[in-house]
Design goal:
Blueprint (H helix, E strand, L loop, with lengths): L10 H9 L7 H11 L4 E4 L6 H15 L9 E4 L3 H14 L7 E4 L5 H9 L4 E4 L1 H9 L10 E4 L2 H6 L3 H9 L6 E6 L4 H10 L4 E4 L10 E8 L2 H13 L4 E4 L3 H12 L9 H5 L1 E4 L5 H12 L5 E4 L14 E4 L6 H8 L9 E8 L3 H7 L2 H10 L16 H8 L2 H7 L13 H5 L7 H13 L3
Parallel strand pairs: 1-6, 1-7, 2-4, 2-5, 3-4, 5-6, 8-13, 9-11, 9-12, 10-11, 12-13
Helix pairs in contact: 2-3, 3-4, 6-8
The structure holds adenosine-5'-diphosphate and magnesium ion.
Length: 453
């Protein structure tokens, strides 16, 4: 393992690195930094939490410090898929650019554009942006991109997931062809490969993705559950023993529901009242300012638990999260890897707990995790019941029905179909059908995916 001082960084930068408390480079930094300093294009693939941000920020700042100035025009552009990630990148730049003269501007949606226009008028050297807002500002003539010499595409796999490829393409068409491009991703697949081809020029590949893509410091557990109520009580018990946890749900609506269930009937001096006080939520429907505030409260330990949608799954570097709970089984394996990557970061130990109901078999079959889950449950001596009928939608009515006492259920049958599902929904029509009918899965799951996070 080499030292930071072996990588070709400037003395000034090495001082900043020491001040930041980084003893030695992580593997991605060890390989990316010297190559980036030689002005090569880089494709860096490494798990979440392995220090990819510093792997591009350090050489980028050094390159800018020693290259010709272009007064008035930004020279480096960092694209991030989400506002939160862009803010985090800006924070890292703040740390390392302290003695460096590079001024930067953060251009993200959800914040007033006026302030950003003012910031741009001050001629920043580095621009950190989400694609939509950058294009907006460019079209208003507020930013010129023709002097960009370093482009960073961070979290490329997430850019793809969020459908940002056309925007990235548009932005790249506005940049000089002669430039250095650094592309970072936690995962590498055919789609990311296409991006690499499109946006980089004879890059140096640094692929550190291990066979098993989640960090070895994470202990993964899959716990079979019978129903929603059991999930909630397991969760409450789990949180009693945890110092901090992120609890992931698939949709924003679910985040609200779980938050409600966790905090219901716990007023006054109820022993679980602490739990309500310690729990926050984060999803895409919340205004940006509130999302930031909630994340800060979690980061600072004001609240210990955060119920969130996949908005928080990728790249957010929240220190020392003790545990990640998948309250809902993630739709894709990538999402799983990213969610559990919020714990066990930078060598710390962490736990990842996933509750699996019989109805989750469909999702697990589809996302390729079924075998892993079955094996893990069997290894722990657990028993996971097979599903008798598909359980794809958690509509209010269906859930109430499932959780109501038998007497109520019988009377509810006048409204509900015989399969126990509301007649008027898509699910009702398929209520009695077998799980493994492919047409059914194909039709039901995309609807699930379309739900906003
Ligand atoms: P990634 O982008 O790969 O998911 P980050 O860049 O967010 O990971 O880094 C994860 C954490 O590791 C951050 O808290 C960062 O400060 C820390 N870190 C990065 N590089 C080092 C290093 N060389 N030594 C110690 N900590 C580091
Ligand atoms: Mg990152």
């Amino acid at each position: 393992m080499s030292k930071f001082s072996d990588l070709g960084l400037s003395e000034q930068m090495l001082e900043q690195v020491a001040r930041a408390g980084f003893d030695k480079p992580t593997p991605i930094q060890e390989q990316a930094i010297p190559n980036a300093l030689m002005n090569r294009d880089i494709v860096g693939i490494a798990q979440t939490g392995t220090g990819k941000t510093a792997a591009f920020v350090l050489p980028m700042l050094d390159i800018l410090a020693h290259a010709r100035q272009r007064p008035g025009l930004p020279r480096a552009l960092i694209l991030n898929p989400t506002r939160e990630l862009a803010m985090q990148t800006a924070e890292v730049i703040d740390i390392f650019a302290e003695k460096n003269s590079a001024k930067h501007a953060l251009l993200i949606g959800g914040m007033t554009i006026g302030e950003q226009i003012q910031k741009l008028a001050k001629a920043p050297d580095v621009v950190i942006a989400t694609p939509g807002r950058l294009i907006d500002l460019q079209q208003r003539g507020k930013i010129m991109l023709n002097a960009i010499s370093v482009l960073v595409i961070d979290e490329a796999d997430r850019m793809l997931d969020m459908g940002f490829v056309p925007e990235v393409e548009k932005i790249c068409s506005l940049l000089p062809a002669q430039r250095q491009t650094l592309l970072m991703s936690a995962t590498m697949d055919e789609e990311v490969g296409k991006l690499v081809k499109k946006f980089t020029n004879r890059p140096k590949y640094i692929d550190l993705s291990p066979q098993k893509r989640s960090a070895e410091t994470i202990q993964e557990k899959f716990i079979p559950v019978q129903n929603e109520r059991q999930k909630i009580s397991l969760l409450i018990n789990e949180l009693k023993n945890r110092t901090s946890a992120l609890i992931f749900c698939n949709r924003r609506q679910r985040v609200k529901e779980v938050a409600r269930m966790l905090t219901a009937n716990r007023s006054g001096d109820h022993p679980d009242n602490q739990l309500a006080k310690n729990t926050g939520k984060l999803h895409g429907e919340m205004p940006q300012a509130m999302r930031i505030e909630e994340l800060e409260r979690f980061r600072k330990g004001v609240i210990k638990f955060l119920i969130c949608s996949d908005v928080a799954a990728r790249g957010l570097d929240i220190e020392a999260v003790d545990c990640v709970v998948n309250f809902d089984v993630p739709i894709s394996q990538d999402n799983y890897v990213h969610r559990i990557g919020r714990t066990g970061r930078a060598g710390l130990k962490g736990s990842a707990i996933t509750y699996v109901g019989a109805e989750d078999r469909v999702i697990l079959e589809r996302n390729g995790m079924l075998k892993q889950v079955e094996q893990a449950i069997a290894k722990d001596g657990g028993c996971w019941q097979g599903s008798e009928k598909p359980y794809l939608a958690t509509t209010e009515t269906e859930r109430n029905y499932r959780q109501s006492p038998k007497k109520k259920r019988d009377s509810a049958k006048s409204y509900l179909g015989t399969g126990g599902v509301p007649r008027k929904t898509k699910v009702a029509r398929s209520g009695g059908e077998k799980l493994n009918k492919p047409a059914m899965q194909a039709e039901a799951l995309p609807a699930f995916l379309r739900n906003p996070v």
